[in-house]
Design a protein that fits this description.
With 650 residues, the chain is an alpha/beta fold. Among the domains are: 2-119, no CATH class; 350-484; 494-635, no CATH class. The strands form five sheets. Strands 12-13-14-16-18-19-25-22-27-20 form a ten-stranded mixed β-sheet, covered by helices on one side. Helix 1 packs parallel to helix 3 (30-40), helix 2 (15-25) runs parallel beside helix 4 and helix 5 (61-74) crosses helix 8 (117-128). The radius of gyration is 35 Å and the shape is globular. The protein starts with a helix and ends with a helix.
């Protein structure tokens, strides 16, 4: 107890200081406690940071370096991003960050690193105390200090890391051509500043960048070339988005440590080097929206490459051969006409976006080898006329997007794993196989499915598609459908000829679900939801109300282009919502509505029963010789007469 009181006294009553001190002393014996507290005697308790620094002093060397980087640069940043940058700098951050958390020097909230203001200031004070002049300090984060060092060329080999905060108050940023000449030990450089073409002219080019750089991130890099002598052999990650670069290197460099290269939005880039030769260990290559790039050398020998981003490279007409290590590939908006033959070897690929590849004419049959593929996006591939029969063998495919494939004429058999089929605005589509809907029945249904054929006016298989969906409903499978159509299907037991409501008498015994149908017309369509509000009215006149809702989620193309329905469409869906406290037989009043701008023209409901139901019960439901309201009123009158007779007998 005495030692605990001493610890509270030494912490000056400050909760944070007490927490840090407690974390430092945790797990120590009494003698160790006495020794640590003895160190504090005689120190000024006015400076709480003297107490806070105790935990810092107990860290290993690399742990101290990591804490200082976090305190100066990375408070509030995502933990995974910080770990990636620190790994690039040669540290082992995962274990170190765990130890910093344990010693209460940092904390994690919503996957982001947090550092208390006092601890962050302590870390910055440690750096400031290194040298009176900013150019002699290991880390620079303050804009005024960075500007002073860059414009006066006072940087030294002590500078290890520079981060220019994009949220700093900056009038302009003008590094001199020789700003980095003396910073030969600079390992990390992050410059997030856009307005390089603002108030002052820039020098023609930088004359020097340190070869010791391991992590280089420079958004809006303003020059067309690197310094002529820049060969960053230690570089691990290079992120130069929206730059003015026209080319990277001549191709003679050997960057064996480079694992990530990001040139997003570098619209002036016209060529990249032979990367298997220059950077043989590359794992991530991002060339998104490099609009002037016309050709990409073969990447097949990059055996560690897992991610390739080419989306928005509209002038690239040929996709390079790819290594089998690829796990992520995006080719949206490119000018490619076909996929490379090596596509069949990408057995780890789970997502393949090809949206907006307007020159793409075919998909190779080898796509059947993509056993891990879950999502295939072909929206707005306006020259695509068919899919290979082998697509049925893509056994894990769950989502197929064909929206806006205006020349697509037929859909072959699809894998039974498919959950979402989006074929909006396929205006030439005539044939579509939906047999995959019924193939899961033997194994049982576990997932809902959604089919969208809106604005497919030439679909000749429409009746078969509707029948297949209703058949799955009868089997208890949740399948939603949107298709051109102006009539409620004949198989719907209860339907009207016009309007958004209907009423009928219903036997609830063995009822397991309802199949709903809405015929509608709509002016604009981003996301459409329908609700059928059902009132179950029992013999005593009590109402039991339930809402059965269904949503159609359209794809990106629809959100951008605001597809309009130019004719009546049909929406079918199933709902197996459980309801209680309702008599076995009741009267039903149902009304369909939508919160969006939609007119419901006709509607229908079909009750679905379990197999336990007898044929006699089915036959009784089919007897509709009397109007429903009349039968309900007659039953009420009979009930009243029976109650009156029972009362008189008493």
């Amino acid at each position: 107890m005495k030692l605990s009181q001493e610890a509270i006294t030494y912490a000056g009553g400050n909760p944070l200081a007490l927490k840090v001190l407690g974390s430092h002393l945790f797990g120590m014996g009494i003698e160790e406690w006495e020794g640590e507290l003895e160190k504090l005697k005689g120190q000024s308790l006015k400076k709480i940071q003297d107490v806070l620094k105790i935990s810092y002093d107990g860290l290993e060397r690399d742990e101290k370096e990591i804490f200082l980087d976090i305190a100066c640069f990375f408070e509030g940043k995502r933990r995974d991003c910080v770990e990636r940058i620190l790994e690039a700098c040669g540290f082992h951050p995962k274990g170190a960050i765990h130890r910093l958390i344990k010693k209460s020097l940092i904390s994690i909230s919503h996957e982001c690193i947090e550092v208390h203001d006092l601890l962050r200031q302590m870390g910055k004070d440690i750096i400031i105390e290194e040298c009176k002049q900013p150019g002699g300090r290991s880390r620079l984060w303050n804009y005024e200090d960075i500007d002073h060092v860059f414009t006066t060329n006072t940087g030294t080999e002590s500078v290890e890391a520079i981060v220019l905060d994009p949220y700093s108050t900056i009038d302009y940023f003008k590094p001199s051509p020789t700003a980095f000449t003396k910073m030969c030990k600079l390992r990390m450089l992050i410059v997030n500043y856009e307005d390089f073409e603002g108030q002052v002219p820039l020098p023609n080019n930088l004359e020097f960048l340190p070869q010791e750089l391991r992590y280089l991130e420079w958004d809006y890099y303003p020059w067309t070339f690197w310094p002529s002598n820049f060969c960053p052999k230690n570089l691990v990650e290079l992120q130069i988005s929206s730059s003015k670069l026209r080319q990277l290197w001549n191709g003679d460099e050997h960057l064996e440590n480079l694992i990530s290269l990001d040139l997003f939005g570098s619209e002036d880039l016209i060529r990249i080097p032979d990367l298997p030769k220059t950077a043989p260990n590359l794992e991530v290559l991002k060339l998104s929206y490099c609009r002037s790039l016309t050709e990409i050398p073969s990447l097949q020998n990059l055996s560690k490459l897992t991610q390739l981003w080419l989306n928005g490279c509209c002038e690239v007409t040929y996709c390079p051969e790819l290594p089998c290590s690829i796990k992520f590939l995006t080719l949206e908006g490119t000018g490619i006409e076909q996929l490379p033959s090596s596509i069949e070897h990408l057995t780890q690929l789970d997502h393949l976006p090809l949206e907006g590849c307007k020159r793409l004419v075919s998909i190779p049959s080898g796509i059947s080898e993509l056993k891990c593929l879950i999502t295939l996006v072909l929206g707005e591939c306006s020259n695509l006329t068919s899919l290979p029969e082998s697509i049925k063998q893509v056994s894990k495919l769950e989502s197929l997007d064909l929206n806006g494939c205006e020349r697509l004429k037929r859909l072959p058999d699809l894998p039974s794993s498919l959950k979402t089929l989006s074929a909006s605005k396929c205006t030439s589509l005539k044939s579509a196989s939906t047999s995959f809907l019924l193939e899961d029945h033997a194994r049982g249904f576990f997932n809902s499915k959604l089919l969208q054929f809106d604005n497919c006016f030439t679909l000749e298989d429409k009746k078969k598609v509707i029948e297949d969906v209703i058949e799955t409903h009868l089997l208890g499978q949740d399948v939603g459908l949107c298709v051109v159509g102006g009539e409620v299907p004949e198989r719907m037991r209860y339907k009207n000829k016009i309007g958004s409501s209907l009423s009928f008498e219903l036997d609830l015994r063995h009822l397991i679900a309802f199949s709903f149908c809405a015929i509608f017309h709509i002016q604009d369509y981003v996301q459409q939801s329908f609700t059928c509000r059902v009132d179950f009215i029992d013999e005593s006149g009590h109402r039991h109300r339930y809402d059965f809702s269904h949503s159609l989620f359209l794809t990106t193309i629809d959100l951008y282009h605001q597809i309009c329905f130019s004719s009546e469409h049909m929406s079918l869906w199933l709902d197996n919502k459980k309801f209680e406290s309702v008599d076995e037989k009741c009267f039903v009043e149902a009304s369909f509505y939508s919160k969006e701008r939609v007119e419901i023209i006709k509607c229908g409901i079909h009750p679905i029963y379990s197999r336990k139901r007898s044929r006699n019960e089915e036959h009784q439901d089919d007897e509709e010789h009397q109007p429903a309201f009349q039968r309900l009123e007659e039953e009420k009158d009979n009930n009243i007469k029976r109650r009156r007779i029972n009362y008189e007998e008493k």
